């Protein structure tokens, strides 16, 4: 891995030090999760950082919302992780009260293809 990284979620290892990710692939997966679940404005020194999936619980669950989420996620993945991953497929679908996000990506440094899936209940007030 290039540089030192903290594990996600943050934790202290058995030796009392900050735990590190086991591999670059684990670190990149953690970065993706952080990006998707962080709301814009949540980080004071990076106000544009974040995909905002957690805020989607207050939106209607329809094709318009799914399209908006896909656009925001695609832009943020490119902006913040474009040097680490190649997005191979990003699908966002609205199914009843669930918003599904399927991301297939390859880690540039290793060439390995990975997949992340999120499901979020939406439309609840």
UniProtKB/TrEMBL annotation:
InterPro entries: IraD/Gp25-like (IPR007048)
Pfam family, one: GPW_gp25
Ranges for domain IraD/Gp25-like: 23-110
Name of protein: IraD/Gp25-like domain-containing protein
Species of origin: Bradyrhizobium iriomotense
């Amino acid at each position: 891995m290039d540089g030192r990284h903290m594990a996600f979620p943050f934790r202290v290892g058995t030796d009392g030090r900050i735990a590190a990710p086991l591999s670059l692939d684990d670190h990149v997966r953690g970065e993706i999760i952080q990006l998707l679940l962080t709301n814009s404005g949540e980080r004071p020194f990076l106000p544009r950082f974040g995909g905002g999936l957690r805020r989607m619980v207050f939106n209607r669950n329809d094709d318009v919302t799914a399209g908006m989420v896909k656009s925001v996620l695609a832009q943020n993945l490119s902006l913040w992780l474009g040097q680490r991953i190649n997005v191979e497929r990003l699908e966002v679908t609205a199914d009843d009260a669930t918003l599904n996000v399927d991301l297939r990506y390859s880690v540039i440094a290793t060439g390995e293809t990975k997949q992340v899936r999120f499901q979020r209940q939406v439309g609840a007030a």
